Task: structure prediction
Amino acid sequence: MEDLFNHPAFQGGVAPFAVGLIVAAALQWARLSGLAVAAGFVTAVYLISGLTFEPLTATRKIVLLGCIAPAVGLLMDFAFKPTRIGRALVAVASGAVCVWVFWSILVQKELIEALFFGGITSVFVAAVTAIGLSIAQQPVRASTAGLTLGLGAGISAMLGASALYALYGIALGAGAGAFLLLQMVLGRRIFAGATLTLPAALTSGLLAAGAMIQATLPWYALPALVFVPVAALVPLPEKMPIWQQAFLRSGCAMMAAGIAFTLTWRFAGNAIT
Result:
């Protein structure tokens, strides 16, 4: 049994999916099923490295923000309804927080390089967060985007030689996938909100950014990953069964993620040779 609990597939995939599914099913009556993403992520963190924040490294800052994001999402869903400008401000703030997360690494680089890495990661995280918040009230699109962006960031990180970020990203995708599966089984939409989309987009974005700054994910894979949640927005007939929408949207989004995978794979191969 201990071998099972210590297996990466269980820690980053099976356990987060199971916990996410339980949370999504148990809390749907309270419109809190979106917590499935955060629950899956926290489960993976606990199993892989434990919930500790000392010393506060870049990775632990990502984990901390991944824990704070669902609380902010809850406030956005139930305490106040942000306007389009409000959502834009949250997205900009999400991008700006990259500087704080990776500050200890950026200050060790040359000025031009630090400005480049800090700038591209901030724009990337702001972009995916803005897309996520824009579809928070569309549960099938939101959960599909969360699923594919988490998997996209995780697999890209794996190809970029960052196993820890890979497992964390896959865990985010597993939590969103559990939420999506519940909708497919029930045949109806479940409220997602910023409670789901903010942690899914912000944390996935930070993990991909971290894999670029700290590992070998090429910078030009980040713009490719932006198109993953965009591809999940492909217009489909509203009367189409949810399970069909889920498969079609996921397929389109994963094809977009394939571009990032290919770019990272080729970059890694060139680096080795």
